[in-house]
């Protein structure tokens, strides 16, 4: 009959065997291959309102950017929707969070401000942010408003986890 130490050893071996069996495959080093470096996209940057406005789809040779929830997306691949004269061009060159939440192109709604949005509008915002913008368009930066004060100084009280309707862990 096996003692307690033998049973613990057996459980550890069984757990290790299960872990190895469920692993998606051996690491590259086990297979005799050099590990590949992680693929990286273009570097991200902070955009002031003035800088973001330069990417509103008016210039034929410029990329088209828009921001939702302070995240700047390159929507150039959707030029037929966001380019000059296109149906959603009003959303470009700015943070249009409120307009996306309300499904509105009213100039008064083309702002970052989410004050007074209903629970349904906030749910819609999160859904469109995740299933449309994050799923289809590369992130090229963030609006300066997310982490800076009005005077441009760092907002020392900024904590992403405290921002309403905002979850940075899902952005990377």
Automatic annotation (TrEMBL):
Note the SMART domains from the entry. Cyt-b5 (SM01117)
Q: Where is this region: Disordered?
A: 150-172
Report the sequence similarity comment from the record. Answer: Belongs to the cytochrome b5 family. MAPR subfamily.
Q: Which GO terms describe its cellular component?
A: endoplasmic reticulum; extracellular region; membrane; mitochondrion
Keywords (alphabetical) are:
Acetylation, Endoplasmic reticulum, Heme, Iron, Metal-binding, Mitochondrion, Secreted, Signal
GO MF entry, a single one? metal ion binding
Q: Which organism is it from?
A: Zalophus californianus (California sealion)
* Entry protein name: Neudesin
Q: Which SUPFAM superfamilies match?
A: Cytochrome b5-like heme/steroid binding domain (SSF55856)
Cell compartments where the protein resides? Endoplasmic reticulum; Mitochondrion; Secreted, Extracellular space
Composition bias (Basic and acidic residues) maps to 158-172
The Cytochrome b5 heme-binding domain extends over 47-144
Q: Which PROSITE patterns match?
A: TAT
The answer on whether this UniProt entry bears the keyword Nucleotide-binding reads no
Q: Which InterPro entries match?
A: Cyt_B5-like_heme/steroid-bd (IPR001199), Cyt_B5-like_heme/steroid_sf (IPR036400), MAPR/NEUFC/NENF-like (IPR050577), TAT_signal (IPR006311)
Subunit and partners: Interacts with PINK1 and PARK7.
The signal peptide, as residue positions, is: 1-31
